[in-house]
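Progress note, sequence design subtask.
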């Protein structure tokens, strides 16, 4: 089932790995599938991204039952499910251990709206409290920190991006990492001045109506 979606998931796993957003088998990806969006495909636990094949991808329903697949799913499958249950607008999730995002998460400081890409993620990127990998507590903390935004930092762990598609979620992962790097550099040379809330609202409205090509 869902061969096209499985292929896409494998392809994006390789992209995440090649982008340097994860090391080894760290991180995981999933995509919502099914007529009612009540299942998701997720990468397997502990298999190198470049070695994952179609049969390694695991199909899980929203109760946590494995519908198809012989491999153990990523240990964070509960975290992915918790986000899908809370956010009907989310169809794809990418979790990475990227360097600057994780470094910032260790200080428990959110990523403020310092640049347009963070503004367009619907607000500053909050930090989910630390909890053990694979725990229900971690899933709850991430859902809370994510709110209705496109990403959340995970304290002492990494980053999660949630979006309409894998392409958009990968873009978000790359943008958060880039902005976390920018923020850490800026903090090292002086005071940081995020964009004011009014200017952020103005930018979001402007982009909604004016950016890009007319269809
Ligand atoms: Zn992780």
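Output:
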């Amino acid at each position: 089932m869902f061969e096209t979606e499985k292929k896409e998931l494998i392809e994006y796993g390789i992209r995440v790995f090649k982008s340097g957003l994860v090391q080894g088998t760290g991180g995981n990806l999933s995509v919502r599938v099914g007529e009612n969006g009540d299942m998701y495909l997720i990468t397997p636990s502990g298999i190198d991204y470049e070695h994952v094949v179609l049969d390694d991808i695991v199909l899980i329903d929203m109760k946590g039952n494995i519908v198809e697949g012989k491999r153990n799913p990523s240990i964070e499958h509960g975290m992915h499910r918790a986000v899908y249950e809370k956010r009907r607008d989310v169809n794809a999730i990418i979790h990475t251990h990227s360097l600057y995002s994780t470094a910032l998460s260790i200080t428990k400081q959110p990523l403020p709206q310092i640049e347009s890409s963070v503004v367009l993620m619907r607000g500053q990127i909050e930090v989910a409290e630390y909890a053990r990998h694979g725990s229900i507590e971690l899933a709850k903390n991430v859902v809370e920190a994510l709110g209705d935004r496109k990403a959340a930092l995970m304290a002492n762990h990494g980053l999660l991006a949630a979006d309409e598609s894998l392409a958009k979620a990968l873009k978000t992962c790359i943008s958060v990492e880039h902005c976390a790097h920018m923020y850490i550099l800026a903090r090292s040379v002086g005071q940081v001045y995020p964009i004011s809330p009014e200017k952020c609202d103005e930018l979001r409205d402007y982009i909604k109506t004016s950016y890009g090509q007319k269809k």
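The two ends are 33 Å apart (CA to CA). Work on this subtask will continue into the next period as scheduled.
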